[in-house]
Amino acid sequence: MKILEVEPSSPLFGTIRPGYSVLSVNGKPVLDAIDFRFRTSDEYVKIVFADAEGREIDYQFHDLAAGDLGLTLDDHKIKLCKCDCIFCFVRQQPNGMRRMLYLKDEDYRLSFTHGNFVTLSNTSDEDIARIIEQRLSPLYVSVHATDDRLRRCMLRNEKLAPIIPRLKYLGENGIAIHTQVVLCPGINDGQQLERTLTDLVELHPHVQTLAVVPVGLTKYRDKLPQLRTYTADEAAAIIDYIELRQKETLKHIGTRFVWAADEFYVIADRPFPSRGSYEEMNQFENGVGMAREFVTMFNRRRNRLGKLSRNRKALLLTGQSAYPFLSREVIPYVRETLGLRATLAPVPNEFWGHSVTVSGLLTGKDLLAFATERVADHDAIVLPPNCLNGDDLFLDNLSLDEFRAALGKPVYVGQYNFAATLREVYA
């Protein structure tokens, strides 16, 4: 495994260089960065490096953690998904997007390090043994249905191993698991959802949580299975069912265990549950409790905002799904109590289709076209916090600098800490 960087504080700095390789730790080959950290956690460690010409260099360490070595390693190749799920979002997009959007990862290591959901469809017995040996816990697993025949149909993979025995085996060997179901109308809801939920509750405490997420569909579904989104009445019925089961599980196992994604509450036009009802927020990145947390954090911090400028007019851009609760629970305080000249505007998703309503899937071109029509009436534009990647690129590779240059007025990237956003915009 190649070494990309050696920090100046490293005891190896000056002798081990970028471009060298790690051959083994205590006589065993190193698979990836996770494996390196695991194998260097012993009290005594012998590491064999190879220089650019292949010459071996040995080092021995005592009581030194991998992090103390200051090495950045060329990480593992990502394991790819072998399924062809009927709702796969990767297949619902056109050419010309950011390259990573076409990557169908199915890597238990990313599940452990980043909380990515995996189906365990390409996880071998050797992988399972490694997960248990190295305590790669918790894992995040896409279940979708515990009826194995239905699950194979939904994932369009006839080779899928039964999911319950695999989850049970992992759990009994010390691996905590968070699960999700992507719910598709008429396919894995109704009695199938009831069965899935019941089966997973029986695996508690090893299976710790279940998130129920509505299927997301774009307009790019030619030659793909026929699916539809949920109606408001159907979403309300799902919320009612899940909240009923929450009461039962809270009584019997001490946790609500299952949560409906925020999107169900948006579709049904229902108020979000209280912050405490989400417990430890273990499914936060899956869109469960995110809206409630946003509002709660703003309410806790809004009294400490201090004096803000009331002269600036700002246009706050958001997605269609966030607009109702923001306009109901946040913007009235901003405008009426703080007296700020803020306009909240929902941006329709012309690129993916109007059925895609989350701000994180708004492209730069859609945001720019919307803002261009309104920029003359405002002094500043505020973008949603999740529409850019770490390189300040939108999904369609438009850069933030290009966006700002096209508008010719100040453009701010919002934060999940909305009070901090207001301080920055109205300073």
Automatic annotation (TrEMBL):
Name listed for the protein in its UniProt record: DUF512 domain-containing protein
Domain Putative radical SAM N-terminal: 68-209
Occurrences of domain DUF512 (ranges): 213-413
InterPro entries: Aldolase_TIM, DUF512, PDZ_sf, Put_radical_SAM-like_N, rSAM_sf
Lineage summary: Bacteria, candidate division GN15
SUPFAM superfamilies the UniProt entry points to: PDZ domain-like, Radical SAM enzymes
Coiled coil regions in record: none
Source species of the chain: candidate division GN15 bacterium
